[in-house]
Amino acid sequence: MKYIFLVFILFSCAKKDSEVSDLNFEKNSAFIVNGGDNSISIIDTKSFAEKGRFYFKNVGNSFAHHIYLSKDFTKLSVAFPEYDFSNGHNGLHGASVEGNVGILNLLDKSVKTFPVAFANHNAILSNDQSEIWTSLVSHSGKIQVFDANNLTSIKEISVGPDPTEVIFAKNGELALVACGETSFLTVIDTKKKEIIKEIKVDPFPTNVWPGWNQSVVFVENSNAKSLNIVNLDDYKVIDFIDFDFLPGFSIFNSSTNELWVCAPKSNKVYVYEKVQTEWIKKSEILTDVEPHQIGFLKDGKTAFIVNQKGNSVQVADVSSKKIIKKINVGLKPNGIAIWE
């Protein structure tokens, strides 16, 4: 039995290496980052099948977290906090946990990784691909900016305690981050790399996500069970939604004018539509365990729902709100980037 087991291990490892070498990173793919095994599942956006899986190596026990595609479709950026965010953020309080950034070049399949001082929530390339921005989820909150070519530090920006996702808006002119131990959304000028505004939102915001255009963002608050909609032209909250569930990731489908909101504790995605002055819950989609992120195809007709504790991606028809396929991926998937 020992020999059979050893042969199985060798065969599995050989297959994994072979799969990696044969992978093609190409258009019409959805890239799913899997935090439990530091891999990327590549899903064909036409057949809805997993084409292969890329495994990051030499990044330690680092729990890959969230994934972004560069504007020129040549690189993927991933955070590698040495902490499992699927267990919540509270375990970081009082801890000393380092983080890492990984950049995967899709042209030659090379990977660059480098460490940062504390567990980071995500890593994202600037619009011109010259910089890498990452957020350190510590009480002495920091946004760190690195040169994308030589990976040297350009600037460390002090923000409020417990910053989470850092994203860009206004065509890359602004960087946004919600700091969990504050009541503000922090706005940073990406050229000057200085804070230019603190926008009052609901207390203890948990994340910020892109809105329906470059001047609007959504501030998620799982503590207050709310969503603030912020206009970056005048730096004000212009709308809000109060939920009867704990919200997670939110995304707007411009083709249908619908807001899709993950409810990870309820294993559902709720769909909202604004009717006159009020956001109305239009429908709900029962998902696999703990929906964490959603991506739409360009035409707005198909949604990919990433289920962190279900180890799956479910494909949903936007019109009918029906799940049409389930795709098993790696362990603890938590992010999606789509190239069409």
Automatic annotation (TrEMBL):
The organism's place on the tree of life at top rank: Bacteria
Descriptive protein name: YncE family protein
Source organism (scientific name): Lacihabitans soyangensis
